[in-house]
Amino acid sequence: MTTDPLANWNGDEMPLGDVCIPASDRGFLFGDAVYEVLRVYRGQPFLETEHLGRLRRSLSEIAIVGDIDRLATRMRETLRHSGIVEGMVYIQVTRGSAPRTHRFPQRDCRPNELIWAEGFDEDHYALPREQGAVAITAPDLRWKRCDIKSVNLLANCLAAQQAAEQGCIEALLVAEDGTITEASHNSAFAVRQGRILTSPLSPSILPGITRSLVNRLAARCDVTIEETSFRVADLPELDELFLTGTTSEVLPLVRVDGAPINDGRPGPVTRKLQQAYRDFLEEHLA
Ligand code: PDD
To answer: Could you list the residue range(s) of the whole structural domain that residue 276 is in?
Structure first.
């Protein structure tokens, strides 16, 4: 049995299924909205400051005036009232509801704020985290501001669906020049000759919160990270490949487009980082 997540819609708590989004909401009509997803471990939102910092930046980049402190208070309240221990929190802020015109509304438009807390099934990633997951490559069809965590995720959804139809967990997104930017909903990392490679921060990728944590964890593990892109053509020569994300954590990829990465098993650097992630989490929760 799944229970309806507990939501907070503009300050009012209700089951998520009872939230009514006005048809004139600009998030609904234009994708004029930004969002965050936080993982909740043992009732505590993980890396809250970092996620709220990115939300602040996303809002500012599209000129929505949001009150991060109020959102944070509501998020914690909703989470507490939900009683969720292992789960996630979703936060979305749209420019608000207004008569449909492309340009921003001139007045009478307050942001619509939606938050919900829901349980997370740890088992979903348990096996792929242990044994390694399979992925496909797909063209990166997204816009040129992927650094903003906007709700315009159609290209991501199409790629994720393509992966699912082929029995794969993710799609690695490939730019026109053959670079693997990231994945449909995860950051991507390669390991070659003892060094970790990942796309540098730019408008072509989301500045992943887990990506940034893994950068710090790599330093703790004495592994060098180079913010250098890798390409589809590099896949046959990689020692390891892995993804990071709020819900996936550190996820080894062992096969892409049907071809194994190295010996087709999760490698030692990925394993080290998985352990470092768990250790960091335990320290954080202590
Ligand atoms: N996705 N890249 C993209 C395109 C993403 O959508 C995400 C996160 C990531 C990983 O970022 P982080 O480590 O901050 O979760 C990278 C979220 C979880 C989602 O859309 O559900």
So the answer is: 125-285
Q: In this predicted structure, what is the pLDDT of residue 3? A: 81
213 touches 183 (CB < 8 A)? no
Q: What is the pLDDT of residues 20-38, one digit of tens each?
A: 999 999 999 999 999 999 9
CATH number at residue 192: 3.20.10.10
Q: Is the pLDDT of residue 1 over 70?
A: no
150 lines ligand 1 (CB under 6 A): no
Residues 173-179: what's their mean pLDDT? 98
| In a shared domain, residues 174 and 63 | no
Residue 59 lies in a domain: yes
CA distance 40 to 128: 20
Element holding 189 (H helix, E strand):
strand 187-192
Task: State how many domains the chain has.
Answer: 2
Which among 51, 54, 142, 149 is annotated as catalytic?
149
* Same domain for 263 and 129: yes
Largest CA distance in the chain: 60
Mutate to test the pocket of ligand 1, among 246, 247, 250 (most ligand atoms within 8 A of CB): 246
- Token pair for residue 176? 């026109």
pTM, whole model, 2 decimals? 0.97
Residue 209 maps to a domain: yes
